[in-house]
Write the structure tokens for this entry.
Amino acid sequence: MEIGGFRPTASPLGSWFGRVNVALPGEEWPSSEGKPMHALCQVNLTELPFRPARLDDVELITVFIGAGDLPIDEANGSNWCLRAYADLRKLVPLSPVKSRSKIKALPMRPTIIEEDFPCWDDVADNAPADMEGDDYEEQFPNVGGFKLGGWPTLVQAEIFWAPFNKHPSAPEYVFQIDTTQKGNWMWGDNGVGYFGRGTARGRRDEWALQWVLKAVRVGQTDVLFEQVPIDFGMPLPRKGRHQLHQLWQRAIHSRFVRCRGAEGPS
């Protein structure tokens, strides 16, 4: 999705970043801990040249995010809210609520991605033995940004839907919202938010959110994610790295740790 840089449509059903215009009759602006959530986006899927398979029965999505700390392992409706609507004709204007949001309200419109490839962590187990991550990513680039469908833009490892990839709805990736300077929105430290839809029996309409950041806060430890956490002094498998990452995301936010890539601080 292209964010900003053009005139918005006059229709309240248009796609927006940082703004939500519509809801079902009787639906109210969502809140968390007594405070109104921030509007993160509204996406009109009927404007897309095509819809991903897991969105073929959805015409519009709205996403809200809590005004405090980012949600960690929380269900839809608790500190974040995703609403999926099957019929635009049933939607009515939603009165805006002041949430003191610093997210910029900008119109969005779809763009076509001609080629999009999975990140190294999604294919490493099946890659040729002589191929390394840097070589792969140079030959097969992944497209970042606000993206519906395609392959997720991974930061640390493949997506493990919390808790520890045992989410009861067995979600599969559907779309991502990336950090955007233009929209004044950031997941942690330049991270990415992934949204998945349930695949378990009877849970198709359940949604999950997992976000991953590029720096985590825990003590004064300096961590080398792409190779070995230096304080542990032993190789750590990709799955183990992500589980540690989930634990670190729960750590108290008053402490800081800088994550380094293989070549140094990022």
Remarks:
- The chain has two domains: 2-212, 223-265.
- DSSP finds three helices and 17 strands in the chain.
